[in-house]
Amino acid sequence: MERAASVNADPVPLPDSNGYCTQWRNWTGFWLLGLCNNFAYVVMLSAAHDILKHQASGNTTASTSATLSLDFQGGNSSNSSRYDCNPVSTAAVLLADILPTLVIKLSAPFVIHKLPYGFRVLFCAVMAATSFLLVSFSSAVWMSILGVIFASISAGLGELSFLSLTVFFSRDVLGGWGSGTGGAGVAGALIYSGLTQVGLSPQITLLIMLVVPFAMLISYFLLLVPPPSLPQWKIRETEYAAVDSDERRQLMDGSEEEEQEKSTPEDRPLGPLTFTEKLHIIKGLRGFVVPLGLVYFAEYFINQGMMELLYFPNFFLSHAEQYRWYQTLYQVGVLVSRSSLCCVKIRKLWALSALQVVNAVLLLFAVRYQFLPNAWLVFTIVLYEGLLGGAAYVNTFYFISKETEDRQREFAMAAASVGDSLGIALAGLAAFPVHKYFCSL
User: Fold this and answer.
1) Is residue 91 one of the residues assigned to a domain?
2) Which family does the similarity line name (predicted)?
3) Which comes out higher in pLDDT, residue 17 or 298?
């Protein structure tokens, strides 16, 4: 009888097997969304300039534009400056790529709730695919520039949308998103360089990369397991993530659930956020947005204003190779730190900002007085720079998600995304006079 009872008894279920599978699918989905969202943004500049060089044959205007390329050909291209400068600072390219994103992030959070997430993702994928097609088949300079703009629009709208989307899922998907965006920098550079290195033309390489927008659609529509409350194809009645209590309880860990229980539904106001409330939320985000913007200002001031000038003539690498390794190691640092949220969390965002500013000041004086002995030390500094920047990014949005009320969280995540883009744009502007000054020496 005991044996029969044991046979007929219900099998013991695996502990939370379905929940673990869902959690893993969502983390992987956001990782791929981060990778796909930033991929075109990373690749488009170098690809567009390769196309510009191809178009520049016998064309003076195109040849002038091609000088914006991030590659150095060796030798002084502008004057007798000891810094081996390009005639135009690489900050010009940075501004062309970041300004559309900045405009979107400044304006979209106030109106983007009117567009359901499904349509947003479709739009981002179409814009990314269009950017690849435009640059690949471009027959004029303006078409290549338009392709860069479309890539910037796709990345900007995608970033604020996917950051807002994370509020519908468990908080660990922020780690997946951050790691994916960090991976885009390394993967984009390596894949584009690798395909062109083996002999494929830039045009064919870009056509191959059309797989990336399709991967974004597959990640979002097939891999993610969204809660029923997610406004996929219709506008919800409220402007915030109205995840019901059962869903929210499943997403939260024990400590967060206790905090939630302290605040009853009657204590939380319902209805859409008013414009005044949104301005109040933005004001409250200053403690996150300002440190993030400062980190990225210092970071891209180094990347676009200093890296080109940190040239060591007696090193075994050429100027072009030194610059490429600076950028590669920076991206590796970003990837590592954006993937670190599962291991370490840093609430002191101002400390990260201060350390990044110290990096910028150190390298500014290093360029001016040339006291660094060789490129090895610069390699270490730019790797450290990437670690600080990536850590600032993922920790900023993690703690916004953790410390913001449910009703405000979706808007706050979108609004705070302007911090990094604003810092990058200001860094690009500041890099122009610095580049001009040092190249005139």
Assistant:
1) yes
2) Belongs to the battenin family.
3) 298
- The domain that holds 162 is classified in CATH as 1.20.1250.20
| pLDDT for 250 | 52
**Each residue's pLDDT tens digit, 225-247:** 888 777 677 665 554 444 444 44
404 inside domain:
yes
Angle at 197 between CA 187 and CA 84, to 5 degrees: 90
Is pTM beyond 0.90? Reply is: no
Is residue 114, in this structure, part of any structural domain at all?
yes
Length of the chain in terms of residues written:
441
Non-local CB neighbours of 288 within 8 Å, separated by 6+ positions = 349, 396, 399, 400, 416, 419
SS3 labels along 8-66: HCCCCCCCCHHHHHHHHHHHHHHHHHHHHHHHHHHHHHHHHHHHHHHHCCCCHHHHHHH
Q: Has residue 167 been placed in a domain?
A: yes
Amino acid at 307: M
Range of the domain at 89: 26-250+273-439
